[in-house]
Fold these 2 entries.
Entry 1:
Amino acid sequence: MFAAVYIDGVAAPVSDDMPERVGVEYSAESLFRCRACGEDLISTTEGLSTVSGEVDCRDFEPPDGPDSDQLDGPHDPERVPLSWCNSAAVHSDESQDSVTVSISVGDPRGAFTFTIRRVPDDSDGDLAGQLVMHTPYVGEAAPHMPLAALHDGTYLIGSPYATRA
Ligand SMILES: [Zn+2]
């Protein structure tokens, strides 16, 4: 068996052994940033502020033009892309003849996992030698995060009643 790792299409050096786990980890300092000044934003009692405590945006543009009396204004928040993702990984296991993709969005110690494996040829039953896929599902015991089915193959992650952060 030969395996290679590609990063943005470029082969990355790996040891002579087939890699068992390849992972990408993300760390967002903040869930929101300002469209105007680009600073990470945090919630305070006075509203959204930069990490250094600036509630007014240095790049605020008055809605009624540069001659406006309003010189100070708030930050313009937007979500930081991928700030919901802790990590993603591919794990191959020759002993199980399986490949697992994992994506962590909740507790960083866990992840949603999607596994395809081949049922051993010498196992009993019709599935011998067939490929099977395991995915997260609604009502799973000890889920990474609760799921609610929207339609086949598509799930809402987390409680549908939770307030949007
Ligand atoms: Zn700003």
Entry 2:
Amino acid sequence: MASKENTRIHPETVRMAEYIRAITAAGSVHAVGIEFISPIQCMKRHNSRRCKGKMRITPRADVIEYCCTDCETCGIIANWRGSEWNLSEFASGLTAPGLLTVSVSEDEYKALRKVLLLSPKEEAIIAGAVWTDSHVVITGTEDVFDELAGNVAFEANHSPGTKKQAALDSVCEKIEKVLET
Ligand SMILES: [Zn+2]
């Protein structure tokens, strides 16, 4: 019989699973063969400091390849299509005409990733965000952004007086500005 000690999941294992999950979701909403840099931060530690690099991701037909922009950390995720983190069916196509883009800060993006009540379509545009010029660029249709603004505002209203609320309010303003134009 397994002891309690053996069944406990190490926090590092949970973080690693989250990391692989994020890379899989990001890669799944991008076109096969096209490399992009995701805002997902590298997991590697150098002298107890976490690497500041982001993940350069290339989705392939069967695997997702990833490499850090700053260190030698690289990997391959196999069988991503069969995984529950494959969001490809919810992706609006990141190159379709008429798409909107919203640029947010890294902290705003982190707050956005913690919003719980999101539809798979909203999750897909957040997961597929791209790291450009020290900003996080989110691309999606007007409908998805409209939905997202509502859910982000709802979450912000339920986190009064917190840093999270400030970050989410700012995201909302940015989305609304883009929707108005
Ligand atoms: Zn790294």
